[in-house]
Amino acid sequence: MSDSDSENKQTTTTATSVTQRLLLSLKEAAKIIGTKGTKIQKVRDDNNVKIGISERKERCSDRILICTGSIEDVSNAIGDICEILLSEDVVTNDEDSNEKENDEYNSIEDEKFVYPFLNFRLAKPTLDEVNDAETLKKIINIRVLVTRAQCSAIIGTKGDRIKSLIENRGVRMIASNQTLPDSDERLLEIQGTSMAITKVLEDINAVISNEVRATREKRYVPHVRRRNQPVSTNTSSNTGSSKSFDEEFKSIVKIPEAYVGAIVGRQGNRIANLRKYSKTKIVIEKRASEVSDDAERIFEIISNDIKNVELAESMLKKNLETEIQRRKEMEETESA
Q1: pLDDT 10s digits, 11-66
Q2: In what order do the strands lie in the sheet with 62-70?
Q3: What is the distance between the alpha carbons of residues 234 and 147, in angstroms, rounded to a whole number?
Q4: Which one has a higher pLDDT value, 225 or 83?
Q5: Could you tell me if residue 72 is inside a domain?
Q6: Taking the CB of the first residue and of the last residue of the chain, which one, N or C, has fewer CB atoms within 10 A?
Q7: What DSSP character marks residue 99?
Q8: How many helices (H) and strands (E) does the chain have?
Q9: Can you state the angle between helices 26-33 and 71-86, rounded to 10 degrees?
Q10: By C-alpha distance, which of 53, 62, 44 is closest to 21?
Q11: What is the C-alpha to C-alpha distance for residues 13 and 209, in angstroms, rounded to an integer?
């Protein structure tokens, strides 16, 4: 990136005003507000942003956090919100919530909701995947509300932009295909550390600011659905299953070029068996005409069931680890 590009990006992140909207559960909202509003006020003061949470509606299980300011300030504020949600302290005497105070505030991420849009689709990674217990504790999921136009800009042509954001910032992301009830907004779920989420939000908001014009798309407002209105087209929303017939879940695994052949197997048999067992589609990036063994190829896993995607991802990584260990042992044997 040139000096002028860096200066332009810095100017954009500091000068352009943006508004970020997050979907929250009641418990998340109460935890962010804090005792007598002290926590959300600190976020407001520390980051020089306008931030608030929508009123709690009777018989509604969700609320909206709205944050406005410069791209940098808003992104940092959302990072602070992530830190609040990760904290283990319990909300007490919250004047904005009638919920009974208890330790359930400490297990927000494990809660299952009747309202399907509140249920996270990205499962928390395992210790084997992260390889660091402290980092694992710092990983969190958030639900960002985006319009159709914004979502298209974030995904990019053939998904190139969202892939780049995932790779460059070390996060996982899923954009839902369906809109929230009575609106034109969709959910962009982001998983990562607070710092990684802050950085990717800077990138996302810069894209939206530079490429998406103001539209009249209808924003989502928490409300009680009409009696005959379906909750969701996701047939598994009340069963705890992750399967959705109108959503597509994706994940990317990078495999060093030197190991691609072993992972794919002779005549593609090994990867074919993995596809069949995990019930996923696995798209392998084409090999460049000239590439070194330390280069990486992208294996993109696709399914309408997030559990299948996670299974395939885990199996791919395990196969890679096994092959690396096998070659290491062969080298030690030969050198002995």
Answers
A1: 445 557 889 999 999 999 999 999 989 999 999 999 999 999 998 888 788 999 99
A2: 50-53, 62-70, 17-25, 139-147, 185-193, 172-175
A3: 20
A4: 83
A5: yes
A6: C
A7: S
A8: 12, 9
A9: 110
A10: 53
A11: 10
Count the domains in the chain. 2
CATH code at position 198: 3.30.310.210
Q: Residues 97, 204: one domain?
A: yes
320 in Cβ contact with 255 (< 8 Å): yes
Give a yes or no: residue 307 inside a domain.
yes
pTM, full prediction: 0.61
CA distances from 212 to 70, 126, 147, 208 (A): 16, 36, 10, 5
CA-based nearest residue to 197, from 231, 164, 233, 172: 172
Got the DSSP string for 194-214? HHHHHHHHHHHHHHHHHH---
Sequence-separated contacts (24+) of 6-15 with Cβ below 8 Å: 9/206, 12/71, 12/206, 12/209, 12/210, 13/70, 13/71, 13/72, 13/75, 13/202, 13/205, 13/206, 14/70, 14/71, 14/72, 15/70
Pair (199, 279) in one structural domain: no
Kindly state whether residues 183 and 298 are assigned to the same domain. Answer: no
Q: State the residue range of the domain holding 276.
A: 249-335
If asked whether residues 162 and 30 sit together in one domain, one would say yes
Q: Are residues 43 and 158 in the same domain?
A: yes
**And the tokens for 139?**
């990983």
